[in-house]
Amino acid sequence: MDLVKFPINSLKLRINTQFCSKEPWQVVTITASTVFLSVWLYEFIFQDESIVDRSKRVAFRLLRRIPAIRKKIDNELKSINESFERDVEKRTKDLLYINNLPGNGFQKDKIMKILNENLNLSDYDWKAGCASGAVYSYDEKLISIVSEVYGKTSYTNPLHPDLFPGLCKMEAEIVRIVCNLFHGDENSCGSMTSGGTESILMACKAYRDYGREIKGIKYPEMVVPSTIHSAFDKASQYLKLKVRSIPVDPTTYQVDIKAMRQAITSSAPNFPYGTMDDIKAISELGLKYNIPVHVDSCLGGFLTCFMEDAGFPIPICDFRLPGVTSISADTHKYGYAPKGTSLVLYREKKYRHHQYTVTTDWPGGVYGSPTVSGSRAGGNIAVCWASLLYYGLEGYVKATRDIIYCTNYIEKG
């Protein structure tokens, strides 16, 4: 006990000696200033944004105020804006813009004429299959089918399941089909979204709320490869999440697993991948530290899940890995559905529960929605459903095989 009391008494004596010549108001002022400075330093150091990033931001802001640099930036921005305006003017110089509602509504022929004029403004033949990263398929037979499907479902809204139970059934079928493609068990579940960005946003929201409510994590972090899609940065801004970016190998572009292990704290981050990272190793990290692992498969999900059947086995990167707790995959990319659909999938319902938003004290009654949108386009769900059924397993396997053959052909020159 004396060993504990001695340093405490020594500290008290030193403090009292230091302040013995001070007046009371000076003691109060020094104490208050010390507390204020300590709180300020703590908040300054432990912000979501690192000191390095904040220092860079301040430095660049100050640099932009230097007249010569400010002038250079303004000139560059002006040049870009003028170039953009010239490009738009070149494409639309012979067309009129409709800025006000017409007095009398247009007839179908006139509407279609203007529509075709607008669609023909591009200089690129995007239907020919040369618009990589923008258009993934143009199957005229499928377009004929989905056009008819959308015509029948364009005014439906799954927000009202009592009015449109068939749309909810189709959505549930899509989720189950895709869960099975990624080897989810009977407990796996998910939601349809408007695109990959929303799927990623929903996964981040689910894990943020799960960490806060179940694990008591007040300041959640995401540990991510530097190659992640910018949707994760958007999610961090929307949801106030701290991002720990981990470098990737300059040759393989796989995330540095050792650096990722060192970056793990007691928060509940997601582990996404842009390129084909070592998902098995990341999954093992998730299990070891009891944190969720998200696999961002928005771009290639509808290739990776058919690669084995196509004769090109790849490392496992789905729910067969026990540490993987969620996956995002876009049906409107290599699922070949029309634009506007994606899925976020979860291993267990406990994660999806925290994705939802529910308002119980709204004057209009209880209001809940599974994703960002309240009302959703039932037509998008229907055409996605139709696209999956149109291609079937063999259709997707063949498309995957053709893509790999084409890739190998290009690599060989």
TL;DR of this structure?
Its cofactor is pyridoxal 5'-phosphate. With 413 residues, the chain is of the alpha/beta class. The chain contains 14 helices and eight strands.
Distance between the termini: 80 Å
Determine the fraction of residues in helical runs and give it as a percent range.
40-55%
Mean pLDDT: 88
Major β-sheet, in short?
4 strands, mixed
Strand order of the largest sheet: 1-6-5-4
Proportion of strand residues = 5-15%
CATH class descriptor of the domain at 148-412: Alpha Beta
Question: From the helix content, strand content and strand pairing, which structural class follows?
Answer: alpha/beta
Helix count?
A: 14
What CATH architecture of the domain at 148-412 do you see?
Answer: 3-Layer(aba) Sandwich
Q: What is the number of beta strands?
A: 8
Shape category: globular
- The fold-level CATH name of the domain at 148-412 is Aspartate Aminotransferase, domain 2
Rg over CA atoms, rounded to whole Å, is 28 Å
CATH superfamily of the domain at 148-412: Type I PLP-dependent aspartate aminotransferase-like (Major domain)
Succession of helices and strands: HHHHHHHEHEHEHHEHEEHEEH
Name the poorly predicted regions: 265-274
Pathway: Lipid metabolism; sphingolipid metabolism; Sphingolipid metabolism
Membrane topology: Single-pass membrane protein
Family: Belongs to the group II decarboxylase family. Sphingosine-1-phosphate lyase subfamily.
Pfam family, one: Pyridoxal_deC
